[in-house]
Specification:
Distance between the termini: 23 Å
Order of helices and strands: HHEEEEEEEEEEEEEEEEEEEEE
Strand content: over 45%
Largest sheet: 18 strands, antiparallel, barrel
Structural class: mainly beta
Length: 410
């Protein structure tokens, strides 16, 4: 479960801090005021209609997964312990068979501040198609390519709420390396990424301590956030290993970066206007900028029904090029979100992203529906169309897939 953690992150879990968390659970002087244990078991299948580009890959996979969470409150709700974990076993890709401690932290509330100690998942951002300012947690890429599944990040963090806004401070203890599909996995690079050979710009390697801060405040119709991150980039540069004509693997290289970001959201009636922008300076490299912004407009009670329809548009810009180039350098994303507001909690999200330079298109469809109080069904479709050879998603051109996920909640 801890195989992809740095040595400092491992010691964080199994050393004195972990012992303190256990003691707090077992020896809390006051009675438990609230506690709960929840989770789900999942049976997932992925079907790839097109023939694989590489001989070791299969056209279908089946996997089972489990996600569990426990919390306990005491001390008049001023203290909480949260533990959550995730595990998956996959039939095709051994790298997708993995487990992770998503969260394991103790929280303490003071008069005007809050303290967190342990592994957490923290999300920053407001936009739908790209999450530029969300830099705390590492992507769990074998789970999904959308960047929304994250690994737990060990940290010490504090939060204070004042009249001038909310200030959050983070010390991130130990680096989490990104997960990558293996040789048998789909949605991978043409040459397999060797995650075991990761390189770092920081002299301390994966033991480097990163720092981050964020200020946020509600100003009338506006939700405003400003953040700064200083440390090892969560986005690796993939360096070829081997001769120019015979690349045998790709090595992740994690540079040191300084990233300043803003996120804005204005709510005006049925309109949501959104913006995320970052200024990124890699050590010993030039400064880059990226932004994504747009709107979502909601139609309530469509056709006299109880359902709501949201229409969204976002423009993506990123001036990183070469080996640092992203798939969102000059793209337009159009989408619709349909919420039926029915007893089965049916939701549908459709999105298409178009590269305005090359014409490459990426289609995404997500749907979910409860079958009863304990069961739900989720569907996901990804399609890569008219993909240019110069586009970073060219490696996925034959990896369209349909995914069905049956979940049993408890």
């Amino acid at each position: 479960m801890l195989k992809d953690m740095s040595s400092s992150a491992k010691s964080f879990f199994i050393g004195p801090t972990f012992s303190i968390l256990v003691m707090l659970t077992c020896l809390a002087a006051t009675p438990t005021l609230a506690s709960d244990f929840t989770g789900f078991l999942s049976l997932e299948t992925r079907l790839f209609p097109e023939e694989a580009l590489h001989p070791d890959q299969s056209d279908a996979s089946i996997s089972v997964a489990s996600d569990v969470e426990y919390f306990r409150d005491w001390d008049d709700y001023r203290q909480r312990l949260v533990v959550s974990g995730f595990a998956r076993a996959d039939s095709s890709d051994e790298e997708r068979t993995h487990a992770d401690i998503r969260q394991l932290y103790w929280w303490r509330q003071f008069d005007s501040a809050e303290l967190y100690l342990g592994a957490r998942q923290v999300f920053w951002g407001v936009t739908e198609s790209v999450h530029l300012v969300d830099v705390i947690n590492q992507d769990d890429l074998v789970e999904n390519i959308d960047g929304e599944d994250k690994l737990g990040q060990p940290m010490i963090s504090a939060l204070t709420q004042r009249s001038w806004g909310t200030l959050e401070l983070y010390a991130l203890l130990g680096f989490r390396e990104r997960t990558f599909p293996g040789r048998e996995g789909r949605l991978r690079t043409p040459v397999v990424v060797d995650g075991d050979s990761a390189q770092y710009q920081a002299e301390e390697g994966d033991d480097h301590i990163d720092f981050a801060m964020r200020w946020s405040k509600v100003l009338g119709d506006w939700d405003v956030g400003a953040s700064h991150f200083s440390g090892t980039s969560r986005d690796p540069i993939l360096l070829p290993v081997g001769s120019a004509g015979d690349v045998v693997a790709l090595t992740p290289y994690y540079p040191l970066v300084e990233q300043t970001g803003i996120d804005l959201q204005m709510t005006k009636g049925a309109w949501l206007w959104k913006l995320e922008a970052i200024s990124l300076k890699e050590k010993e490299a030039q400064r880059n900028t990226a932004a994504v912004g747009g709107f979502e407009y909601s139609l309530f009670g469509v056709g006299g029904s109880s359902s709501d329809l949201g229409v969204l548009l976002e423009y993506q810009f990123d001036d990183r090029r070469g080996i640092r180039e992203t798939a969102n350098q000059n793209d337009l994303a159009l989408g619709a979100r349909w919420m039926l507001n029915d007893f089965k909690s049916t939701e549908l999200l459709a999105l298409v992203s178009v590269d305005l330079d090359s014409g490459s298109r990426f289609f995404s469809f997500e749907g979910s529906r409860r079958l009863n109080d304990s069961w739900s069904l989720e569907a996901e479709v990804r399609v890569f169309s008219n993909v240019s050879r110069e586009d970073p998603i060219y490696a996925f051109r034959a990896d369209d897939y349909i995914q069905l996920d049956l979940r049993r909640y408890f």
